[in-house]
Design a protein that fits this description.
Layout (H helix, E strand, L loop, with lengths): L7 E6 L3 H10 L8 E6 L7 H9 L4 E6 L10 H18 L7 E5 L5 H18 L11 H15 L10
Parallel strand pairs: 1-2, 1-3, 3-4
Helix pairs in contact: 1-4, 2-3
């Protein structure tokens, strides 16, 4: 029997967290390859329903990674994202899913090693929690790939109205 490896979706802001993920790759830092990164113009563009949809499609955990607090390129986008992550945790708890499956982190673009640490931290946390009850026995990868492609298409537009409540 193969060892369980959690599937993680990371919503990363373009300016900082995605750049940190890119730096981690450039530095050839070792971390599990179970994370799928979705680049957002700003984490303020993230809605609670995107996080919940990821679980519906079979991911075991989600993390949102934005700019350092006080350093958002869209002023308050990451603060709004933090509130939305907290709301997603509340909803997960209400439906009986562990709220620890979702978290928010703040990174600068120079924190490639921290990005790798976050992936390792989330992998360890989710491994201890076990598979999400929404995860199909096999083949969660395809719905997640499809979701990330659709989300990239809708979120990557030039309309950066990231700081709407």
């Amino acid at each position: 029997m193969s060892k369980y490896e959690p599937l993680i979706l990371a919503f990363c802001c373009h300016y900082c967290a995605y750049a940190a993920a890119d730096l981690a790759g450039s530095m050839r830092l070792q971390y599990p390859n179970n994370v799928r990164v979705l680049k957002l113009p700003c984490t303020g563009k993230l809605e609670v329903n995107f996080i919940l949809a990821a679980f519906e499609r079979g991911v075991d955990g989600v993390f949102v990674a934005g700019c350092l607090e006080g350093g958002c390129h869209y002023l308050e986008g990451n603060l709004r994202a933090r509130r939305r992550v907290e709301r997603a945790k509340e909803i997960l708890s209400e439906i009986g899913l562990e709220p620890e499956r979702v978290d928010m982190f703040n990174l600068s673009s120079a924190q490639g090693p921290r990005f790798a640490e976050i992936v390792n931290e989330m992998t360890a946390r989710l491994t201890s929690l076990g598979p999400s009850p929404f995860r199909p026995a096999r083949g969660a990868e395809e719905p997640v790939r499809e979701m990330t492609e659709q989300a990239e298409a809708s979120l990557s537009g030039e309309n950066h109205d990231c700081c709407q409540s």
